[in-house]
Amino acid sequence: MDNWRGKWALITGASAGIGVAFAKELALGGTNLVLTARRKDRLEDLARSLAENYRISTEVIAADLADSNAPENILAFTKEKNIAIDLLINNAGFGQYGEFYSIEKQRLLDMVEVNCSAVVHLTHLFLPQMIQRQRGDILILASTASFQAVPYISTYAATKAFDLLFAEGLAEEMKPYGIRVCALCPGSTESEFAVAAGQEHFHRNAETAEKVAHTGLKALAAGKSCVISGLGNYLGAHGERLVPRRFVTKIAAGMFKPKKK
Hints:
Blueprint: E1 8-12, H1 17-28, E2 32-37, H2 40-54, E3 58-62, H3 70-80, E4 85-90, H4 105-133, E5 136-141, H5 154-174, E6 179-185, H6 193-197, H7 209-221, E7 226-228, H8 231-239, H9 245-256
Parallel strand pairs: 1-2, 1-4, 2-3, 4-5, 5-6, 6-7
């Protein structure tokens, strides 16, 4: 993690799961942190602990990325603090399990806002500063769901496909400027995500958040545009390319179909 020693990283969704794991690993490597999420109390506890244990500087800003004004507020906060962000981690995101028609409309629209719009917005706000300095890194949380349609989490899978393609395309654009961009694609991970999405009964063979975060940061530092965390996840994501997409979707539907009560 020496890539970012003494520099500033901004982590969205930093109050739980993979976001916390990113914060801890970067703090261990001497990176200063701007932490943002909805739950300010959790952010403050984490920031205090990391500052005390690793002697880094930390800042906290509570923000809900479902609010389209949140990215601008985060940028304004960093400018007010005179902080230059060298590492942007677009980690915040959520899903929702169930038949599409039965899920509250606003929940679906907020998912698109947080998982896609906020990622584009934050990246567009902080990238010009990186280009001006001729350095910077951006890590975007995609998913193994990025590689296929997944019935009963259809909207979530679609948002993560967007994140993957956005990251890979931007990675090529930014090479002339010396800026690295990488999509991190985890599978099932030990975090609050599955419970919030109503998918806890599918939470098998989960990797630790720490392992996923380390995989992403290592791949970003190595200049990769995409990394899939876990050998099984890697084989699954690439193996499905050998059969028709419709067949893969049908198999996924059988796995994810809600049980009749």
